[in-house]
């Protein structure tokens, strides 16, 4: 092998290794970015949705208690309806994002719990309108229904985090 060939090979081999290393690094960087985007757009979005549902559940409870305390206050009923709508919107958005992911089975359990919770809220509202024992139903039925829904929400949030 001639001297000039050796010099060229000593320069070319490190240059080729450098280009291969650079290509590998860029590929890894692109992969990391895609995984981070997936995390933000799926797992993090589901977690935000679960947090929003939890917050709206708390808001529903407070608004319902305000209706029981002062049935003539129209703002309390408006707050309850707004919180119910916001909960449903957060659920719909989270369910759409979770489709086909590991979160889908857990989120699919929430509508049944929310239906039970909503029925107990309606029962309390009916008793308030009829001057019935709304406080007793609130304590014995609505609060336990909320606790079950809250437990499921918190369990799903732990999975999402």
Walk me through this protein's architecture.
The chain has 161 residues and is mainly α. The protein is 89% helix and 0% strand. The chain contains 5 helices and no strands. The radius of gyration is 28 Å and the shape is rod-shaped. The mean pLDDT is 89.
* Annotation field: number of helices: 5
Distance between the termini: 61 Å
User: What is the overall shape?
Assistant: rod-shaped
Uncertain spans: none
Kindly state the number of beta strands: 0
User: Which structural class is indicated by helix and strand composition?
Assistant: mainly alpha
Rounded to an integer in angstroms, the radius of gyration calculated over CA atoms is 28 Å
Features of the shown structure:
mainly alpha, 161 residues, 0% strand
Please provide a brief summary of the model.
89% of the residues lie in helices and 0% in strands. The protein has 5 helices and no strands.
List the helices and strands and how they pair.
Elements: H1 3-69, H2 74-98, H3 104-108, H4 110-129, H5 134-160
Helix pairs in contact: 1-2, 1-5, 4-5
